[in-house]
Amino acid sequence: MRVVVIGAGATGLGVAWDLALRGVDVVVVEAHEVGVGTSGRFHGLLHSGGRYLVTDPNAAQECYRENVLLRVIAPNAVVATGGYFVKKYGDDDNFERRWTHQAEALGVPIREVPPAELRQALPMLTPDIERAYWVPDGVLEGFRMLTMLVAAIQARGSRLLERTRAVGIRTESHRVTGVEVEGPDGHRTLDCDAVVNAAGPWAGLVAHDWGIDVKVQPSYGLMLIFANRRMDQVVNRLKLPSDGDIFVPHQEVVILGTTDVAQPCPDAPEPDRLEAIRLMSLGAELVPDLGSWRVLRGFNGVRPLYEPSGLTDDSRTVSRDFAVLNHGDRDGLAGAFSVLGGKWTTFRLMGEVLGDKLAESLDMRLPSRSADTVIEAHRTTQATSRRHPVDRGALLCECEGVYESDLDNETASQTQMRFGTWFSMGPCQGTFCAHRVLGRRSAAQFAQEMAWLRHEREHGLNVVGWGSNARLIALEQATKAQTLAEDLS
Amino acid sequence: MTVSVLVVGRGPAGLLSASYLRQRGFDVTILADADGTMSMWSGDFGFGRSADAFESFPVKLSQSSWVAAFQGLVDIFDSFGVPLRLAPPGVILRTVTATGNLRPTFAVPAWQYASVDPEDLIIVGIAGLADSIADAQAVSYRNHVRREAIVVKLTRPPGWDPGWGAIRFASYLDTRAGLAWFTRELGAQLRHAPRGVPVIVPQILGLDTTVEIVAHLAGELGHPIAEFPLLSPSVGGVRIRDRWERSLRRLGVHFITGRAQRVSPTATAMTDDGREFAADYVLLATGGVLGGGASVTIDGAIIDDLVNRELGKMDDVQSLDRVGHPDIDCIGGGRVLAVGRALGGWNPNKDHNGGAMVLGSVHMALSMISED
Ligand SMILES: Cc1cc2nc3c(=O)[nH]c(=O)nc-3n(C[C@H](O)[C@H](O)[C@H](O)COP(=O)(O)OP(=O)(O)OC[C@H]3O[C@@H](n4cnc5c(N)ncnc54)[C@H](O)[C@@H]3O)c2cc1C
Ligand SMILES: Cc1cc2nc3c(=O)[nH]c(=O)nc-3n(C[C@H](O)[C@H](O)[C@H](O)COP(=O)(O)OP(=O)(O)OC[C@H]3O[C@@H](n4cnc5c(N)ncnc54)[C@H](O)[C@@H]3O)c2cc1C
Ligand SMILES: Cc1cc2nc3c(=O)[nH]c(=O)nc-3n(C[C@H](O)[C@H](O)[C@H](O)COP(=O)(O)OP(=O)(O)OC[C@H]3O[C@@H](n4cnc5c(N)ncnc54)[C@H](O)[C@@H]3O)c2cc1C
């Protein structure tokens, strides 16, 4: 039994994990690299369901269930920070009533918090808060979870092919028998018994390649990263979900998000300065002093919302829930499936539901085991900190504490290395460490890798070029040009 | 009566202003809230990418004035023990960067590698030094100039630990044991290297005894030897800054730590803790956005708070680095003057003329003060 999964984001890897646990031989094909899609461009929130209590009860319940489950099966990739929903004076009382009512009805635990307690936990919040509720929100370490999933899948004999794009399928009498891919080995066909389209915002395009119409509504959102972890809990605004109403602490930073703008294409657009300014003023409604926080960068992610009834202009009315399509039943193409929409938080559940449908249609009696199998922690930089200091080698990235010995995975791509070690992600954004890390990888590829990293770091920096970040940009440019003469290379 | 000048900022523009002013007998006070950029750059003075770069400068000096200005710079550096090598007029020296690129320069400390024509080189890599990436550096160098670059590598020095940055390496080489280690190790590595080929090493050859170390190594090893600069904190820049500030103190320049909040057109500066300094002139050597003399507001306005003036809009400027005051004569009819990066209209990142423009603007400002 061989299944090809298209897309190595949270959804595709969740599917692959669930299938691998059922004993299926899985091949995941990824056009670029793990996590370059929406799963590496999200807000980092392990939803408690609180956000969707009123607008999407189904999603709320699913999120809460998975939230509780992930703390058990993936404790290395989630942090149970807890979070607050805060209502400002003047925010809709009616919404608050429905929200608390729904929490009880759906079994999502909330607890009203006295304003004094909130002020103590989060003194930077506006004093204009009328009421606050604690919720079991948490932080989802997306990059770590992806790495753990890849390792867990590979440990069970399944494979991941990066830089391999699915371009079509081979069929025999209305049944899928193979997936055509283009990759480092050129064009070839991977034989299979079934194929799963988990291409996130690109899922509509993948289905289109199969001659099938699937409506995916891409909508992008902007997030701003602040350079310091100034809060330890998630903060949500208690009102109808809207723009700029969530703060998430993530490792050493805080992320504010997001916006929601429908767009025709699935690629993430360049972040826009005016939108960043708008997000700052929305965020200041909760944190009045936000203007004095150092912003580090801004980035966009694209939601892969499934929209059964066709494209729409108002993307927030589309369900956050996910859908699993069996194209055998729906379109007469046996062995083809799509899994659409959803959230990072529900990646495992999406895998389970897809797995059940797939097993059923192929007459396999293999139950899902992903709800009670721990996703092992991947070897991380913690291994380094246990070494004798001298064996770590030189300190390459002062901001994030990356040593030479952290680079020992020679086959990792630059992006994997960055998300694995976090180099160039701290306050200096690679100004002083980029050449140190990349110069120790391939000497032949060095110039190209440097140019790519600078480009990637700069486009996130420039969108928030004000205050002390403007000064960092000036320093980065001076170092790059005047110390290293990269412009003359 | 002696004329008093308050210099705000102690980056290269501030220090250079102070040197010139002291030479001419002015009473000089330097007020700065922090170190300037001297310790971030290697200390070689960029002039421009081409021999006639001066034609594009916002500061108009004749070619002979430029030559005279650079000669004056050499004299000042000489006075505090940093020998500068000057390119002859019309010729551009190129120095090698830590990433193997070639960068034009006009005046370079004698300890730093520079040459007019590219040559075959031996590049020294040092284990345990973060900025040392000799293999990658050599590939870039070969690709750029189609010359050979041989890499030799030294192991970590005794007593090394991961906390050793370039400054720590340099102070080790200032010791007798450090220099002996380096001479022995490098000598062993160069045993089979072609004789006479220049050797370039990361900029760690001491903080205090660099000139002596370079001479010693060249004598012992039979190769010309010079450094290539690393990143911040740059050992080359730190050497210059320390010697320069020490010499200015000796010459009677007052150093005051503090942040100026307002500078009035009548040449009075007020600090954020309420101190007031009145002088005959104020030189704003505040370094633009990078130096902290200008800030960018969230809606993209670039503002010099000191004199309460908008310098531009982010949307209109191609690069942050062109931003600054439009004229040296900044406010107050010639009593408040902008020098160095505080003066706009030039882009050292694009044009590689940072050092020249610091020199040129200080030169002009000085002539404006002297004419009075
Ligand atoms: C702004 C924003 C904030 C969010 N915040 C949160 C949050 O805080 N918490 C939360 O739980 N959820 C959040 N989400 C939702 C969550 O991020 C997404 O639902 C989830 O990441 C989607 O994952 P995916 O695997 O479906 O898509 P992706 O991660 O985009 O993966 C799809 C992959 O398919 C690949 N691909 C595409 N076409 C092909 C092809 N032809 N062949 C091979 N590979 C292909 C792509 O390269 C990509 O890697 C947020 C979403 C957005 C947009
Ligand atoms: C939860 C979370 C926390 C974060 N925390 C931090 C933080 O603390 N500090 C920080 O600096 N950033 C942080 N980021 C942001 C991150 O660095 C990126 O800005 C973000 O992932 C979006 O990518 P990008 O803007 O660089 O987009 P892009 O430039 O489009 O790149 C996205 C990724 O895909 C890769 N990629 C894209 N196209 C290609 C291609 N053709 N070939 C090869 N690779 C390609 C890039 O290398 C890059 O890693 C965080 C992101 C998230 C989701
Ligand atoms: C990384 C880097 C590498 C460089 N490399 C080279 C090179 O190789 N060759 C070259 O020729 N040039 C180089 N430069 C020089 C550069 O391009 C500029 O010419 C130089 O930085 C300008 O110096 P400055 O003295 O004008 O300002 P800065 O050095 O920035 O000094 C500004 C000073 O003003 C002070 N200040 C600012 N505002 C106030 C206030 N309100 N109150 C009190 N004090 C204040 C600051 O604390 C600081 O002391 C480099 C610069 C950098 C940053």
TrEMBL record, chain B:
Lineage, top ranks: Bacteria, Bacillati, Actinomycetota, Acidimicrobiia, Acidimicrobiales
Organism: Ferrimicrobium acidiphilum
Protein name: Uncharacterized protein
InterPro entries associated with the record: FAD/NAD-bd_sf
